[in-house]
Structures are given as structure tokens and as C-alpha cells.
């Protein structure tokens, strides 16, 4: 599936990896929200963890068709996601996200892998408000 990506941390505009990974590879980047998730602080980057009642702020990124496969592979490497590998920090899953105009879009989202999510729920530092850019 060629879904857009929902990014919520270091890939957002003005953040560390935005230009390196997204510049020149996207057709559109627009504000969006991921319902049903909370945001936790990681070692220099955030983790979204599924949980009812929470919302994570980010951007919906639509790749240029000719750059899609390259971008997907690059983001999988950045997020240390390997399908089926229990050592992965994140899982890439498709979820419904809401664009700023109210449209609901299916997008790839990198969520904390199950073991990481369990650790964060038990001992993690939550980013109140769900916005990486507004963290203290």
C-alpha cells in the first residue's frame, strides 16, 4: 500500500531529520492528528503509544510517487523497524489520522513496539498535550 506517512517527532518541519529524509521527496506535508495515542519522551526522540483518550500532533506526509519506495526504506531504517524482528524499537502500522480540514486519512505511523510500549506505560515520561514541538 502506498500510504502517506504520519510523522510526529524528529521528522517534523524544523526538526533534526526533516530536511535529510523528506526534502525533495514529498508532494505534500500538512498538519494532522493521530487519535488514540499518547506521546512519550525517548532518548532524543518521541514514541507514540496506542491508548484511548490521547491524541498525538504531527504532519501527514505524502511522498512523491517516484520517491515512495526509497523514502519508505529510509524511514524504516531511521526508525529501526524490521518487520517481524522483536528487537525493533517501532512498528510501522496503518492508522487513521485526521487532517486539519477534518478529512480522515489512512497513513503509515511508527508506533512504539510492544515491549517498548509496555516499558513506557510503566515508567516513561509522557509528553503532555501530545505535541513534540511544544514539549518543555
TrEMBL record:
InterPro entries registered for this protein in UniProt: AIG2-like_dom, GGCT-like, GGCT-like_sf
Top-rank taxon, per record: Bacteria
Domain (Gamma-glutamylcyclotransferase AIG2-like): residue spans on this chain: 5-133
Name of the protein in question: Gamma-glutamylcyclotransferase
Phylogenetic placement of the source organism: Bacteria, Bacillati, Actinomycetota, Actinomycetes, Kitasatosporales
Amino acid at each position: 500500500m502506498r500510504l502517506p506517512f504520519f510523522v510526529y517527532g524528529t521528522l517534523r518541519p524544523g526538526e533534526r531529520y526533516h530536511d535529510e529524509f523528506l526534502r525533495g521527496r514529498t508532494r505534500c506535508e500538512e498538519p494532522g492528528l493521530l487519535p488514540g495515542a499518547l506521546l512519550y519522551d525517548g532518548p532524543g526522540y518521541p514514541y507514540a503509544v496506542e491508548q484511548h483518550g490521547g491524541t498525538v500532533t504531527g504532519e501527514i506526509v505524502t511522498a512523491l510517487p517516484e520517491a515512495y519506495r526509497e523514502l519508505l526504506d529510509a524511514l524504516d531504517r531511521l526508525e529501526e523497524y524490521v518487520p517481524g524482528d522483536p528487537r525493533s524499537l517501532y512498528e510501522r502500522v496503518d492508522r487513521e489520522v485526521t487532517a486539519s480540514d477534518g478529512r480522515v486519512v489512512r497513513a503509515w505511523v511508527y508506533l512504539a513496539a510492544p515491549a517498548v510500549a509496555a516499558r513506557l506505560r510503566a515508567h516513561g515520561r509522557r509528553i503532555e498535550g501530545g505535541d513534540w514541538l511544544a514539549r518543555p
